[in-house]
Write a structure and sequence with these properties.
The complex is a heterodimer. In chain A, a hairpin with a 3-residue loop joins β10 and β11. In chain A, strands 1-2-3-4-5-6-7-8-9-10-11-12 form a twelve-stranded antiparallel barrel. Chain A is globular. Chain A is mainly beta. The longest helix of chain A is centred in the N-terminal third of the chain and has 21 residues. Chain A has one helix and twelve strands; from the N terminus they run αββββββββββββ. In chain B, strands 2-3-1-4-9-10-7-6 form an eight-stranded mixed beta sheet, with helices on one face. The N terminus of chain B is likely disordered. In chain B, a hairpin with a 2-residue loop joins β6 and β7. Chain B has a single domain, classed as Alpha-Beta Plaits. Classes of the chains: A mainly beta, B alpha+beta. Chains A and B meet through β4 of A and α1 of B.
């Protein structure tokens, strides 16, 4: 535990140094910025996640495939329904993909201080997740591992191509087991505080000329969780790269791995690949 | 007051505008503003300078200009207007501090301007609250004695007589 406490502040310093040195973008791969998608826009995203599962004794690769749509309902509010398929909670050696989860995420931008090439924004979000998975691990996520409700706050500062974003949220697992007699004797918790600190950097183009230029961004995110009703905490580091094509499509790839602390988790590292296509002005307004 | 200082109707046109948006650095963000602006039916063409987040807007000739709609489109994309310059293609207009002039379908109330006759074409900057940064707005309003252009005062700007058809009234400076 001591080890964990000592390492976290120094890592934060490294991260802050990294983004001051390089400048940043805020279209993070693992977390959400306080900014919303544009009003009346629609986007569709496929996200795949692969993990080496070893927690239950059989080392093998499991997968999760998510389909998401982000909807800009207004300039302050966006919604994101998502569906997940996966085999992460199957009994080994069953590798069949099955429906895993459905979720709805809503983000409300509550503060915007805009200036030339900079902004400070705050947003609150809430996410409801219905999951078919049984409770198997200590780690609590908002990604479809458990039926849960998540709510939190995001603060994002963009300043002359430098962006830092911090997210803090509470996750409450609402699985039926929580209210059964044996709930107190299991090794899973039902409440966690999840957080992230994210930064990114636009590598190319060095100078913007047109919307057709391919942008290449690199990201570094610190993602952690602390059990509130069980004593565990871990921190992951997640470097990621992103290509933005034609100012409307994103290709993301990231690798997330545990760097400190620990918990009973399915795995301590995972690979994510995603593709997202945005359609601006896709939701037509009624003519006045 | 407004009527006394009213200098007469002029139907000269605004052909172009330069808009600078704030709160963004990425091309993806600029694209959402670009796409929103081009959806307006009185805008013919938009050119972007991605480095400065600026948009050069060309208006369709003879159309009604809705200045607030331009601002709303930028805000819908998730950003703010920090500068809007309107290019007026008519010289010989007599402008001055606290003068109101109709140009096209809008009335413009000039602030911080010495009395002068405009040259063949000129640019004026919209200086209402949502068209510039909070800091600039505070600075500009602090130096103005005109009641309808003072920080934290919401007394409406009176429309001069004979402008019943005008769609909006905006504070501008050179």
């Amino acid at each position: 535990m001591m080890h964990y406490k000592l390492r976290l502040p120094s890592l934060l310093l490294v991260l802050v140094f990294f983004c001051f040195k390089l400048g940043a973008q805020e279209l993070y791969v693992y977390s959400e910025p306080a900014s919303n998608v544009p009003a009346k826009s629609l986007s569709f995203k496929y996200a795949g996640k692969w993990m080496r599962e070893s927690a239950l004794g059989h080392e093998h690769t499991t997968a999760r495939h998510m389909a998401e749509s982000s909807i800009g309902l207004g300039k302050f509010l966006m919604l994101r329904p998502a569906l997940g398929l996966g085999n992460m909670y199957n009994n080994y050696p069953d590798q069949q993909l099955r429906f895993e989860s459905a979720s709805l995420y809503a983000k409300l931008r509550v503060l915007s201080l805009d200036d030339i090439h900079k902004h400070f924004r705050a947003a609150t979000f809430v996410k409801g997740i219905f999951s078919k998975n049984n409770l198997q691990y200590e780690e609590i996520t908002g990604d479809g591992d458990q039926t849960a409700i998540q709510g939190g706050l995001i603060l994002t500062q963009l300043m002359h191509k430098l962006a830092i974003s911090a997210t803090g949220s509470l996750v409450e697992v609402l699985h039926a087991d929580r209210w059964k007699d044996f709930a107190g004797q299991t090794f899973y918790g039902y409440q966690s505080f999840n957080y992230s600190l994210s930064t990114g950097y636009l590598l190319f183009p060095r100078k913007y000329k047109s919307y057709q230029q391919t942008n290449f961004n690199i990201y570094l995110e610190l993602i952690g969780s602390k059990g509130l009703d069980r004593d565990y905490a871990f921190t992951d580091l997640a470097p990621a790269i992103q290509l933005i094509l034609n100012s409307n499509a994103k290709i993301n790839a990231g690798y997330r791995f545990q760097i400190s602390g620990g918990a009973y988790r399915m795995g301590t590292s995972s690979l994510s690949i995603s593709y997202e296509r945005s359609f601006l002005n896709a939701i037509k307004q009624k003519k006045k | 007051m407004g009527i006394l200082l009213w200098s007469g109707i002029s139907f000269s046109q605004i052909s172009k505008a330069t808009l600078q948006a704030s709160g963004l650095t990425c091309a993806l963000c600029a694209k959402s503003i670009y796409s929103n602006l081009t959806a307006l039916d009185f805008i013919e063409n938009v050119d972007t300078d991605l480095e400065t987040s600026s948009f050069l807007i060309v208006f369709k000739p003879g159309t009604q200009l809705d200045i607030d709609a331009i601002r709303r489109k930028v805000e819908d994309a998730g950003f703010s207007v920090s500068k809007l310059l309107l290019k007026v293609d008519q010289g010989g207009l007599v402008i001055g501090n606290d003068k109101k002039i109709r140009i096209g379908n809008n009335v413009f109330h000039f602030i911080h301007v010495k009395t002068q006759q405009t040259s063949s074409s000129f640019e004026m900057r919209v200086i209402d609250q949502k068209f510039l940064s909070a800091k600039e707005f505070k600075k500009l309003t602090a130096g103005s004695k005109i009641a309808c252009y003072q920080f934290s005062k919401s007394s409406p700007c009176s429309m001069p007589e004979g402008n019943e058809g005008a769609v909006g009234i905006f504070h501008v400076t050179l």
